[in-house]
Design a protein that fits this description.
This protein is of the alpha/beta class. The protein is built from 14 helices and 19 strands. The chain is globular. It starts with a strand and ends with a strand.
Amino acid sequence: MQRFVYIQTFGCQMNVYDTERILQVLEPEEYAATDDPSRADLILLNSCTVREKAEMKMMSYLGSFAQLKEHNPDLLIGVAGCVAQQEGERLLKKVPLLDLVFGPDNIPELPGMVQRARENGERVSLTKLHKKKKGYEFMAGKPMVTGKPSTMVTVMKGCNKNCAFCIVPRVRGRELSKPCSEVVSEVERCVEAGIREVMLLGQNVNSYGHDRDDGILFPDLLDAVDAVEGLERLRFTTSHPWDCTDALIDRFANLKSLCEYFHLPVQSGSNPVLERMRRGYTFDEYVERADRIRSTVPGLHLTTDIIVGFPGETEEDFQRTIDLIHRVEYDGIYAFKYSERTGTKASQWEDDVPEAVKKERLARVFEAADIYRKQRLATYADQVVEVLVEGPAKASKPTQPQLSGRTRTNVVVNFPVGNAALGTWRWKGKLAQVRVKRVLQHSLYGEIELVQ
Ligand code: 5AD
Ligand code: SF4
């Protein structure tokens, strides 16, 4: 019997990837994805707990399904992901309408859980994290079903760092790397299925391979993936500055598919704050890495994550973060107000920066970073850029069709396709040479010159 599953994903790309794995295990059970919750037999929320806001959003979403459940007693509702991993049984107690709670390592067991819930009316929680060094089997990933020409491939799970603010090691466990041969064959399958761009995914990809004894580290993995015939673009995320080695940086100069984009989270510019965060580097050490990246790869876009209002952050500490932004001239930033997470080291300290101060610092961080993003985008004016076409632009209209894609540096470029009769599907996954006509706030607008 054909059934429907509705999944809402919160949080990072790791969760986006896990959502695909969830769909994959449900496929043999004759579940097809739907984007209409009222049509679903199974509703799943793949949750994030990195900041309180993400968790609250998920919880309020969950409440909104109560009515659906009243109308359809057969409907099963479940929470997956990081909140599930953190809360387990407690979540079943807290939320009476919930039937299923399962952690990221329990995705393969989902069909059995659904069966128990359906047949015996059980409410099931499975949140067993794989903690041993051996014996973990990565699910053999299939190319993602997003229809986009780019996709993600997980190369490792977990994180061994112990940043004081971060809940990830608790909910995702120790680092475990997927064997290189498995990564390569997954990438090969993606390319065969028409994928042209792959993002290698891990909480800290730079420490890839340290848990294995085959001597293959992250730069070697990049070599192996770059060698896959037909792969046009390669990216990775996320990196920790601590083990961002010269060998890794040099790959940008040597591997043709590796795109000129690097996300290197710094979190703070203040040495005392960095120390309390247990990041393992200083302002100067970070800047040295950033300089090396910039000088090795001209034109690369360097982006970062910043937390404002970490416990004990003074105005002077915060000023060092602003100094750092001016020093590195980031091409883009992601910035967050510190959010206390139960179970982290920092949760033992008072969350003492007032909300109003956090808000104001967040605004100042964006203001400082904006200068450089704008400056960088302005350099694209009248240049020809290579765009991997992803599909119709958000602003596309039937009368004025527009396509959208990204540069190798990860900037969104929209451009009109004069003749509506061309349709958009034939363009997907093509490389277009686009001349930039207008530089917008966060994207570029241009005219197509050539398609490959
Ligand atoms: N509060 C605020 N931001 C956080 N991040 C991680 N944990 C927290 C927290 N407790 C941010 C970091 C990280 C990004 C994914 O989320 O900047 O790099
Ligand atoms: Fe959120 Fe972290 Fe889990 Fe990703 S790994 S979903 S960022 S808590």
